[in-house]
Amino acid sequence: MDGSGTSVNPITVPLDKSTGLFSYSRRATPASTGLTYSYQWSATLNGDWLAFTPEAAVSNSGSPVEVITVTVPAALRLHPDLFVRVTATPAP
User: CATH number for the domain including 37?
Assistant: First the structure.
């Protein structure tokens, strides 16, 4: 591990717009890493990314790496072009 907190490919299941589900992996103990995770979306990839609250974010309880399955809100899935990302930032 390079210590940077990045993953080579943290997205384990890409977004399925019909169900709103996607999955990503992260260390199972975010509190010990000092990171806070948030979710953002864009319809263009150009400009601002907007925060959203998932309908659900469920862990598979893996250790030391867990997979989080996120449900994107139905209203966002109505956009013809939808891009989502997960950001990890140092906790305040």
Answer: 2.60.40
Question: Domain for residue 4, yes or no?
Answer: no
- Whether the pTM exceeds 0.90: the reply is no
Beta strands in 1-92 (DSSP E): 11-16, 21-27, 35-42, 50-52, 56-59, 65-71, 83-90
71 Cβ contact list (under 8 Å, min separation 6): 19, 20, 21, 54, 55, 56, 57
In this prediction, residue 91 carries a pLDDT of: 81
48 in any annotated domain: yes
Is the separation of the CB atoms in 76 and 28 below 8 Å?
Answer: no
